[in-house]
Amino acid sequence: MAEKDPFVSPILKWVGGKRQLLDSIEPLIPKCSTYYEPFIGGGAVLFCRQPHKAVINDSNQELINVYITIKEEPEELIQTLREHKEKSCEDYFYRIRALDRDKEAFEHMTKVGRAARTIYLNKTCYNGLFRVNSAGEFNSPWGRYKNPNITNEATIRALHTYFNRANITIKCGDYREALKGIRKGAFVYLDPPYMPISASASFTGYTAGGFGEQEQIALKAQCDALNAKGIKFLLSNSSCAFIEELYQDYIVEHVNAKRAINVKPEKRGQIKEVLVRNYEPD
């Protein structure tokens, strides 16, 4: 495969994004026939690694629509983002944000229109925080940035080239569905919504619905199933007694991550996370 393209990088700022941990994660990723990432989020690890064959998935429909639109209609997306950039102001932001309040009209928006809206809101909302309420409506406030990079044309075109040059399957749904039919020789990187480490730390706003203890236990069962098949996996999560006890049969490594997204500025900074794996690195 061609050399890595440095412009292949995350188009969206995403809660729990892995740019800060790439130096710890990237050396642990083994050679594999197919790379799987069932909680793709902002895609920092995928875009750093740029595997030639991958299956990516997320339950967030708007996020996955961004990736599909970049793969299929990049120039139309760029043009729509240019239009957003020209009109951008606080009043315009709230008008675009409000589009998902009319569910029927929102459903009839084009793929390009919805993808451009997601990118525009992500670039202009407060702290780049993609967050929805219990009704699934985007609810982050206006961010007051001087000159946000709304169009980001170089990244969109580089991602378009990568998605079409490599064999990338893009799915939207439950992570377990994305792993069906996986074969030995594949590798799975799991970056689920983290176990909250305090009552106030919980963030479940990527999609309407949470990922609590029962979901973490179900994910561990999925890891056990992968391990039983001889499939290598690497998992990121918060450093807490619950997670460390849950994965005590595997290799658990502590790493420091810098978190740039938090509603309270004093809460941004170094936090401990764990990397769990069932193999020794190559």
% residues in beta strands: 15-25%
Structural class: alpha/beta
Q: Oligomeric status of the shown chains?
A: single chain
Profile the largest sheet: 7 strands, mixed
Task: Give the CA-CA distance, first to last residue.
Answer: 20 Å
Give the ordered list of helices and strands: HEHEHHHHHHEHEHEHEE
Structure report:
This protein starts with 21 loop residues before the first helix and ends in a 5-residue tail after the last strand. It is globular. Helix 3 crosses helix 7, helix 3 packs across helix 8 (153-165) and helix 4 (74-87) packs across helix 7. Helix content is 36%, strand content 16%. By secondary structure, the chain is of the alpha/beta class. Strand 1, helix 2 and strand 2 form a beta-alpha-beta unit. The chain has helices at 22-25, 44-49, 61-72, 74-87, 90-97, 103-107, 111-124, 153-165, 175-178, 213-228, 241-246, and strands at 35-37, 53-58, 167-172, 187-190, 232-238, 251-259, 269-277. Strands 3-2-1-4-5-7-6 form a seven-stranded mixed beta sheet, sandwiched between helices.
Short description:
The protein has 282 residues and is of the alpha/beta class. It is built from eleven helices and seven strands.
